[in-house]
Amino acid sequence: MVRSACYEKDSVKIKSGVWIAEEDTKTPTFVLEHGSSNWTSIPKKTGVKRCGKSCRLRWNNYMPDLKHDNFTSQEEDLIIKLHAAIGSRWSIIAQQLPGRTDNDVKNNWNTKLKKKLSQMGIDPVTHKPFSKLIADYGNIGTSFHKPTTQIEVANKDFRNYAILLKSDPYQFNQQQTLQTTGNSSFMVTKSHSDDDFSIVKGDSNCTNIKNETNPTLVDAFPPFSWNDFLLEDAFAPPTNNQEQQILFSKENVMSQNGKMKEAMSHQVSSCSDISFVEAILDQENEMFLSFPHLLEEPSNY
DNA sequence: AATCGTAGCAACCGCGTCAAT
DNA sequence: GATTGACGCGGTTGCTACGAT
């Protein structure tokens, strides 16, 4: 189905462009009084000649509790770290920054942070130093390995998130939720009083989730370093030494999946609407637990 | 003073997903 | 199962302000 995002309905001319004061008064007043359950009806009820989508966007960007001042250096650091970990998922990143919208975060990234990283010699896409990218360019084809299985992808996500947690003690003293692959999300909790943090795989609709603690994942928080913003090379095979030290080795991931599975089993009792996709992923995880050799390098056909 | 280039921000657009019919 | 409509997200564009020439 192809149609314009904002189309004319009932012969009402849809206005576009900058919002005027009158429109800015009508829409928020209506939303505050009646809620925002049906955006398409709001233009009709308020008399504003905008499409519902436009009203929603305007409301989201100008809700009363939003900040409109410049980003602090702490906020910018957090954006960089989160971008390194999960990429340009602006809505998720914005959830970690109270009072900021995804549009704010995205604009700040595009106008300031990308340049900041580039000036420091760091590629804002891969979060690697340009020098390393150039060096790696010469090695393309010799050691190319993409994460292909569900567990390997999760492994990469966890490794990135572990880097994130390692490098940011001030932000992650509370429950944090990050969406990773597919419909899944992982909730990570950490406290400053000990070095433990817990990971559970969750569903956004579920509120009663039981945690499993894993004390081995992060041992200590080193001082801040820009190196923390650099992603581990996802395509390079680990050296023997790295293989031993890596936070989320296959065994760890399998262990994690076991724990997540266990955690999820607690969830099932409280969440009746666990998705079909999650069930399929469960089956896949169970298969890999039973047949660990399947985690080995895929065959080249 | 006029022109040009750039940065920052607001809004639009297209697509994917989901729910209702 | 197919269609339709609504919502949410990320990429992109356009406008405005401001500084440099």
From TrEMBL:
GO molecular function: DNA binding
GO cellular component: nucleus
Domain (Myb-like) ranges: 11-63, 64-113
Subcellular location as annotated: Nucleus
Keywords carried by this UniProt record: DNA-binding, Nucleus, Repeat
Pfam families assigned: Myb_DNA-binding (PF00249)
UniProt keyword Repeat present: yes
Positions of the HTH myb-type domain: 11-62, 63-117
Protein name: Transcription factor MYB35-like
